[in-house]
Amino acid sequence: MDVPAVLNVENVTIRRGAATTLHDVSLTLASGKTLAVVGESGAGKSTLIGAILGILKPAKGRITWDDKPVPQGRPALVMQEPRSAFNPALSLMQSVNEPLIAQRTKMDTSRLERLCKGLELPLDVLDRRPSEVSIGQAQRVGILRALIAKSPLILFDEPLSALDATTQKHTARLIAELQVEEGFAALIVTHDLGYACAYGNDIAVLREGRIEEFGDASAFVASPKTEYGLTLRNAAIALGALELAA
Ligand SMILES: Nc1ncnc2c1ncn2[C@@H]1O[C@H](COP(=O)(O)OP(=O)(O)O)[C@@H](O)[C@H]1O
Ligand SMILES: [Mg+2]
After folding, report:
1. Which residues contact 67 (CB under 8 A, 6 or more apart)?
2. Is residue 205 within 8 Å of residue 38, measured between CB atoms?
3. Is the CB of 45 under 6 A from ligand 1?
4. Which residues are paired to 69 by β-bridges?
5. Residue to probe by mutation, ligand 1, list 13, 22, 37, 47, most atoms within 8 Å of CB
6. What distance in angstroms lies between residue 22's CA and the mean position of ligand 1's atoms?
């Protein structure tokens, strides 16, 4: 049997200018699994994504996928800022096509139609430019672009932030459904602990560039190991974002 590929982040330290924005960060994520990364603004979540993509070089430590350096251009990314994720001069369709061109594969139109339906994106939205759609539509086109190319590793940076609650639910479910079918590894950065715990197999809590907690998401909800984790969890319960098993 094939051993599933694993993303392995080992003791990674990232410096940006004079600041150290990740300190000795270690975590793992296997194919078919979801790792939710939570933490306040500025905790280093996007820095972690930049490091996995190879855009930010570790001062210490290493990052591997399937025991090799992460292949350049292979992980798909859903960027945090939906509109700036696209070239303003191109139609959204052209941008969605870019990863396929890079892989020398043709657009599978039935897959495109299915994904657009699941994302509640009318196909003609793709004929427009980024400035001609709503921010929520742009965010869903970003998700479409990440899913279309069947990358084995997909990095989602706050993928639902511009969507209303109902669309968030549909979109989260679509991503999870597709993951069951296709087996990609998903790293999902979110500040929504409810989303993190509903869809994450594992959860990593980042604080000021350090991992506070990393492990099974339901174990985290039941009993956080750190005071900070407990504070986050209790705040999410107070907001009604988490429902604890009785
Ligand atoms: N381009 C940059 N140059 C230097 N520091 C940066 C840059 N971008 C972000 N930072 C700093 O790195 C830290 C982590 O930022 P970031 O990874 O964007 O956090 P998050 O995504 O969790 O909100 C913050 O202190 C931020 O100010
Ligand atoms: Mg960020």
Report:
1. 6, 8
2. yes
3. yes
4. 64
5. 47
6. 10
- What is the rounded CA–CA span in Å between residue 91 and residue 83? 12
Domain with CATH 3.40.50.300 in the chain: 1-75+153-163+185-246
57 lines ligand 1 (CB under 6 A): no
- For ligand 1, say whether the CB of 50 is within 6 Å of any of its atoms: no
pTM for the whole structure: 0.95
Q: Assess whether the C-beta atom of 88 lies below 6 angstroms from ligand 1.
A: no
Q: Which CATH number fits domain 1-75+153-163+185-246: 3.30.300.20, 3.40.800.20, 3.30.43.10, 3.40.50.300?
A: 3.40.50.300
Q: Which residue has the tokens 């594992």?
A: 202
Q: What is the pLDDT of residues 8-59, one digit of tens each?
A: 999 999 999 999 999 999 999 999 999 999 999 999 999 999 999 999 999 9
